[in-house]
## 1
Amino acid sequence: MTDLLDRVRATGLLVAGEPVVVLLSGGRDSVCLLDVATRLAGPEAVVALHVNHGLRGAESEEDEAHCRALADRLGVELVVERSGPVPRSGNVQAWARDGRLGAAARLAQPRGAHVATGHTSTDQAETILYRLAASPGRRALLGMAPRDGLVIRPLLAVTREETAAHCRSRGLAWREDSSNASHSYSRTRVREGLVPALRALHPAAERNVVRTAEILREEAAVLDELVDTVLAGAHRVGTAHLAALPPALARLVVRRLAEDATGRLCPRAPGRLQELLDLGEGALDLGEGARAVVHDGQLHVERTPRLSET
C-alpha cells in the first residue's frame, strides 16, 4: 500500500526521527497507524500507548495481549496503562477518551512528542453528521482538524476500508471491538443507519461531507481573522460597533468573547446577540459558565460567578 504511505507522508505529520506517541487500541485503524508511523518516523521515534479500560472483561485482556505482540513484531516500545474504576454514571465513552488522551499527553510531553490518533476520513464524516444532528452552528461542520495542539491525525484523508486493506497487505491482524456494534451508542447508529442511507443517495456522499468540512475549515480561518480585526486585541467591544456589524460577524465576536473568558466552547452564546443589543445596561447569562456584561456602551464577557461569590 505504497499509495497510502505516500499520502500520509505528504501530510507532513509523521516525519523521520520526530518522536510520536501512537494511541493503539488494537483495531484496524490504530494498527494501520502504528505500522505507518513506524515506517515513516522510524521505530526508535515511536512509542505505542495502549490503555486497558477493562470495559469488556476478557476481550479487553485479549486486546492488550494483541497490542503487545504487535509492538514486539514492529520493534516499537509499548506502554500499557490501566484505567481507574469505571464511573457508575455519565458518559463512559467520554471518560475513556479523556483517560486515553490524558495518559498520552503525560507520555508525550517529556519526550517532546505529538500524540497520533487513528481517525480516518470515515470517522470524519460520521463525526460531522453526528455533530450536525446534535448541535447547531458552523463548528458542527468543521469536523476534526489534522493537527490540534499535541494531537495529530495522520490518517484523516484515508478511509476505513483503506486501513483494512493496508493491514491485510502487510499481514497485520487487528481486533474487533464488540461494543462498536451496540446501538446504544449514537456513533453506531450514525455508522450503520445514516451513512449507508447517504451512500444510497450518492456513492460519494462521505467524500463530499469530508471535502465540505475541509473547505469550511479554510473559510473559518478567514472569519477568525475578521473577528481579530474587530476586537483589535481587546476583550471588549462597543455595543454600537457590534450592532453595525453584519449579524453573522457579530455573532462570531460574541462567541469569541465568551470562549476567551471561559476557556471552553460556548455554542449558545452567539444566539443571544439580539438580547445583548437590546440589553442597554446589565448582565445576561450566555450558558456554559459565561456571563455578558454591558456597561457604558461596552460589552465584555466574564465567568459566571459561583453562588458563594455573589
## 2
Amino acid sequence: MTFGAKSTTDEVLEGVDLSGKRILVTGVSAGLGVETARTLAAHGATVVGAARDLAKAEAATQQVRAGAAHGGSLELVELDLANLASVRRCADALVAAGKPFDAIIANAGVMATPFGHTSDGFETQFGTNHLGHFVLVNRLAALLPAGGRVVELSSSGHRFSDVNLEDPGFEHTEYSPFAAYGRSKTANILFAVEFDRRHKARGVRATAVHPGGIQTELGRHMTPESVQAMIDSITAAAKASGSEASFEWKTAPQGAATSVWAGFVAPADAVGGRYCEDCHVAEVTDGDDLLRAGVRPYALDAEHAKALWAKSEAMVGEAF
C-alpha cells in the first residue's frame, strides 16, 4: 500500500493490531499529540500520554478514551520539557515502573516563540524541542526492547537554519524566531540520526518526521499576518521554480499519519536514521524552494550529529 500527503492516521493503520503495544506520546494536550494518541488507542495500544498541563490534557483526551478499542487505553503523566527537573522526574518514574515501551513518539514542541529561556537557562525553542526530548528519550532508552522505535517530530522548518554549536543560545547571534525554530528542528533530525546509530545494533531504530503544515496550537505565537506572509513566501517560491503547487493545510489526521507510518508500518531499515514526510522517506536536497519536499544534507550529517550529541550532553550535564 502506498500512502501520501493526504493519507490519514486511520488509513495508514488500517488492519494494524497494536494490542499489547505500549507507546509513549509527548504533547497530548492538543493537536497532533491528541490525534496520535487517539488512533493508537483505537488500534489497541496502551498509550502513555505526557503533557505539561494535566487538566488540559485530561479534557483534550476524552475522545482518546472514548475511541479506545481492542484493549487500548490511555494514561497521563506530567512532563514539562522546558524544565529538566520535570523531565527527569517523569523519566525516573517510568523507569521505576519498569514497563517497556515499544515506541516513543516525541511529538511535543513550541514554534516561533519570542526570545526567552527555559527554567534551565536554555533558549526556549532549542531547550524545549531538542534538549528536553534529548534527556527524556535517552533516560528511557533502556525501556525500548529490540524492535522498538523512536519517532522525533521535526519539520520542513529545519531548512530555515542549521544548528549553531558555537552559539546555541543566541548570545552572540541576533535572535530570529524562525531561525531558532529551524535550529531546534534540525537538532531533532540530528538526534534521531545519532540515536539510531547508537542503538540499531540491538534492534532499536530512530527516525525524524515532518507532519506537514497543520493549524494547531503550535502556531499560537504567530499573528494571522505572519502566517499569511509565510504562506505567500512559500507560494511565491513555488511559482519562481515553475511549480503550480500551492500551499495546503493538512488536517490533524493527515498530519499525524507520517508519525504512525514511521513508527508502526514502514520497514525499520527504511526509516532508521532518516527523515520522513508525507508517509515516505524524504530525498536529500539542497534546493531553496520552501515548498519543495526534501531534507537538507546538514540535518543528516553523521559527524554533525555526533557533535550535537556531545554539545547536548555538556549543556544538560549528563552523559548517555
## 3
Amino acid sequence: MTNAFGATSTTEDVLAGVDLRGKRVLVTGASAGLGIETCRALAAKGADVVGAARDLAKAEAATAAVRAAAAESGGSFSLVQLDLASLASVRACADALNAQGQGFDIVITNAGVMAPPFGHTADGFETQFGTNHLGHFLLVNRIAGLIREGGRLVSLSSSGHRLADVDLEDPNFERSAYDPWVGYGRSKTANILFAVEFDARHREHGVRATAVHPGVIWETELSRHMNEDEKQALVSSIEAGLAAAGQPPLTYKSIAQGAATSVWSAVVAPADAVGGLYCEDCHVAELEALEGIRAGVRPYALDREQAKALWALSEELVGEQF
C-alpha cells in the first residue's frame, strides 16, 4: 500500500477532501491532547462525534473548538462519562450507549495513562494494565453490537510496546517488582493484541481493527507523571538506542501530527491493508525484533496465539465472556 502521508502529516492533511457527514464516531479520552484533536478533526468533516471522558466538567471546558468545528460543518459533538479505571463506570457508559441504540462507524480508544507510580484501579488491577487495556477491552466488547458493518476500531498503542510483552502469569505485578515502564510496555502491547484478536473475530462481519502509535508528543497530558529530569533521561535513552541502530534521531510531533495516524487508520487507509496490524506515521509498521524504542512493531505484539490468550485472561479478569 502506498500513500502520500508520513510522519509530518497532520489531521488536516490526512482528511483533506473527506466528507464524514452521516458517520458516527466514539473517541475515548476526549478531555485533552490527542483526544480533543481527534474529535475536532472528525467533527470538522461533518461527523457526529461522541467523546468519552472521566471528568465531564473538564471535557466540557476543553472541547469548545470541537463544538465550533461541528457547528460549522453540520456535524455534532456530545460527551459521555467514562472512567476506564472503574469497571462499574465502563459498564454504565456501555449501558447508556446501548440504550441509545445509535450505531458507530468508528471507535477510537484514545485514552490512557503512562508510567504512574504503582497503584491499582477501583477493581484491583495494576493501574496501566487496568486502565489502558482492561477498561477499553470491556467497553468495546460491550458496545461491539453498535459498530456498523464496514466500521473500524482504532486502538491507540505506542512504540512503548517495545519495552515489554504482556505477562499473562503476573499482569498486576503481584509476584514481580513494579517498573512503571515495564507496566506501560505491557499495557501498550495489550492494546495491539486486543486489536489483533478483535479484528480476527469481527472481520467476517465487516468490522476491522488496527492499533496505532501516534508518535512522541510532549504537549499532551500523557507525560503528567514525569518530571523534566525523567523526561530528559527517557529522551536520552531513546536517542542512544536510535543511534546504535543507525536510525534517524528522535523527532517530536505536534498534537495535530500525533492524531493523524489515528484518523488515517480510521478513515483513509483501506481496511484490508491495516486490519489486524500496527500503524505508525500513517503507514503500516514493519516487523522489528530488536529491542529498544524505535520504529517498527515487535513480533510478539502481533502474535495471534498470544492475542487469544490475552483475550481469555481479560474475560476472566473482567468476569464476562464475549
